[in-house]
Design a protein that fits this description.
- 47% of the residues lie in helices and 16% in strands.
Length: 174
């Protein structure tokens, strides 16, 4: 697209026999380099998360029924095939299993949703080797996967996962 745009810009600036003035060439180069800078600045901003879509949610509430109901409303709104909606209960699964699923691309559809019950890392400190990987995931989530954490108690603001979640995760109180 940029190359075609540059050719069009040159054609607009030059004569029909393709003899271009020095100012036309410099103008074209300036125009072309501005497009490249714009392209790469957008890529840089996306990496920083400024334009990222909501890929991670945290629903907090004291009533499990209300939390689950709010999550189901979000799942319907996201319009993902029910086959690609998974649930991980961290009282039954290890954090490394969840991380593997979070980083695995869905083979059957473009998008998948992972609902995470009992995300202990928001309210309890444990010695888990995979916790730093989860925190890294907050910075750079898989764009094909939406994660919905379901929390039925308050968050501990002193925990590293909570601190990072407040920066990168959309938090909804139910």
């Amino acid at each position: 697209k940029i190359t075609q745009s540059w050719r069009n810009h040159l054609s607009d600036e030059g004569s029909s026999n393709h003899h271009f003035s020095q100012s036309a060439i410099l103008s074209s180069i300036s125009h072309f380099s501005a497009q490249i800078r714009l392209k790469y600045s957008i890529i840089f901003i996306r990496k920083e998360g400024d334009f990222m879509p909501d890929l991670m949610y945290l629903y907090i509430g004291n009533d499990s029924f209300l939390v689950e109901n709010a999550v189901e409303q979000l799942v319907k709104k996201l319009d993902v095939d029910p086959f690609n909606v998974l649930t991980y209960d961290l009282e039954e699964h290890d954090l490394d299993e969840l991380l593997q699923e979070m980083n695995t691309i869905s083979f059957f559809a473009d998008k998948k949703i992972i609902k995470v019950k009992h995300p202990w890392f928001f309210y309890e400190e444990r010695n888990d080797d995979y916790l730093p990987d989860l925190i890294k995931y907050f910075h750079s989530p898989n764009e094909d996967t939406t994660i919905i954490f379901m929390l039925e108690r308050g968050m501990d603001s002193s925990l590293p996962a909570t601190k990072e979640a407040k920066k990168y995760v959309r938090i909804e109180t139910v």
